[in-house]
Amino acid sequence: MKRAILIITLLLPLYSIAQDKNLQILQEAIDGRDLASITILNLSKNNLTSLPAEIGQLKNLKVLNLRRNELTSLPSEIGQLKNLTYLGLSYNDLTSLPSEIGQLQNLTVLFLGGNDLTSLPSEIVQLQNLTELNLGENNLKSLPPEIVQLQNLTDLGLSDNEFTSLPSEIVQLQNLTGLDLGGNNLKSLLPEIGQLKNLTELDLWGNKLKSLPPEIGQLKNLTELDLWGNKLKSLPPEIGQLKNLKVLDLRRNELTSLPPEIGQLNNLTELDLWGNKLKSLPPEIGQLQNLTELGLSDNKLTSLPPEIGQLQNLTSLDLTDNDIPEAERQKIESWLPKCMIIWEW
């Protein structure tokens, strides 16, 4: 007779019971169950400050959700959960991880965002089946060199940390498809960024980048590139090599012009240039035949090239906070009769 899969969600009293009482309830809940039948355990939002050592007795546990508690540490017994595939620890108060974390050989997803981590244990390299690792909103300045051995990793989140340069280890993670480095203090990118041939989404928002290396053009599979809130003054011509790019976010930079190669982005559907210093657009902008949304607000434009009228799929054009005179406005409206043009908010 097959054993039924047991899913447990424990919502412990948050206000009427002290936090140490919550821990006692958790211990009693574990003790009172058929431990072998528990495969999914949801303990999110319970004000837990610690976990009992008995957590290690849940030998068949596959999913453990501990998001949004107040955990400051994990017991070493966490390493006994050999069948765990998903571990959610986002938004706790963790300052470190036990070395036993490396014993979770079947783990594929590890969420650690929103903690107070300043480093990772070298044992993390033992998580050879890991495909998704989120470390956003911590206090990381570097990554352990051993992380390059996580060759099955496809999604790496490092946003809102304290990186000042692209960790060299990252460029060796050849299977990455998603990389989020937004909200750090990056001033430049390594040319080796071009080695991440499988990247489809690259988030670099909220950094201090003044330029992009020409090697950015080697990311042929990129579909989304987010660069808002940097200090870019220009784009390399190689940007035109990103033939699969669909979304390009360049808001709040310092661009004064766009390279003609921008017109080579044939699959682009969204281009946002709000808050730059553009005085004109290249005629090649009219080659973006799949463009549906174009944001040009808060620039220094006084006109648009007639080629803008070739954007027959354009449904939204934002031109607020520019200095386009009425005569030019009428021209633009005649070129794009089916497009919603926003002049003022």
Question: Which features does this protein show?
Answer:
345 residues, mainly beta, Leucine-rich repeat, LRR (right-handed beta-alpha superhelix), 15-stranded parallel beta sheet, 14% strand
Overview of this protein structure:
The chain has 345 residues and is mainly beta. Among the domains are: 165-254, Leucine-rich repeat, LRR (right-handed beta-alpha superhelix) (Alpha-Beta Horseshoe); 277-345, Leucine-rich repeat, LRR (right-handed beta-alpha superhelix) (Alpha-Beta Horseshoe). The protein is 7% helix and 14% strand. The chain has two helices and 15 strands. Residues 1-20 have low confidence and may be disordered.
What's the quaternary structure here?
A: single chain
Question: Secondary-structure element sequence?
Answer: EHEEEEEEEEEEEEEHE
Pairing-aware structural class of the strands and helices?
mainly beta
Low-confidence stretches: 1-20
CATH fold name of the domain at 165-254, please?
A: Leucine-rich repeat, LRR (right-handed beta-alpha superhelix)
CATH class identity of the domain at 165-254 = Alpha Beta
Helix content: under 10%
Which sheet architecture does the biggest sheet show? Answer: 15 strands, parallel
CATH homologous superfamily of the domain at 165-254?
Answer: Ribonuclease Inhibitor
Q: What is the CA-atom radius of gyration, in angstroms?
A: 25 Å
Quick check: average pLDDT? 92
Total number of helical segments? 2
